[in-house]
């Protein structure tokens, strides 16, 4: 009874803040899987997804965080409690071999801070997650959250110079603003199973194309903050 009450309470909270999940049934109830997601300015959608998965599936999602976060005093211990790791290929395989769900954003900080309202997928040549999926032989579940770049934004001014500084130092010196009350809808796509004989580069491109397809299907481009806020209003009222 207590668990049911907490579940209902959290569901109400997620509804009030304008968060929904579609396709949660693609996440398995048991067994390992990898979630590959598009990284908004701040991964608030992933926090909500973790909460939703605990409530509905009874499963904790492990995640990979950027290495610079672990250099902040006190954060390493916090991340250990939250099952967030820097994520080497071998450590990720071990997490999956233990039957867990692992979430990775290949775009990481670069995609978060230097993307824009056109929602570019900025993976570069990163294919480490593909190596993990192929070696662990687990399905990859693509994830995209509608309006995730409208909840928080980064300013356009100085972006070129800040990008150069980041590429040389890996310091995320980009200011962030926002906390706009937009409608957030997380979409999970169908699982992608590693093709037999595929290389990490080929599998990475396959997953990337699925993410890009989801963006085109679910996100009205370019992103717009007022429009994303208005999505929270139920325009279509049910009639008897």
From TrEMBL:
SUPFAM superfamilies: Glycerol-3-phosphate (1)-acyltransferase. PANTHER family: MONOACYLGLYCEROL_DIACYLGLYCEROL O-ACYLTRANSFERASE, TRANSMEMBRANE PROTEIN 68. It comes from the Eukaryota. InterPro entries: Plipid/glycerol_acylTrfase. It comes from Pomacea canaliculata. This is Phospholipid/glycerol acyltransferase domain-containing protein. One of its GO terms (cellular component) is membrane. One of its GO terms (molecular function) is acyltransferase activity. Residues 19-143 form the Phospholipid/glycerol acyltransferase domain. It holds the Pfam family Acyltransferase.
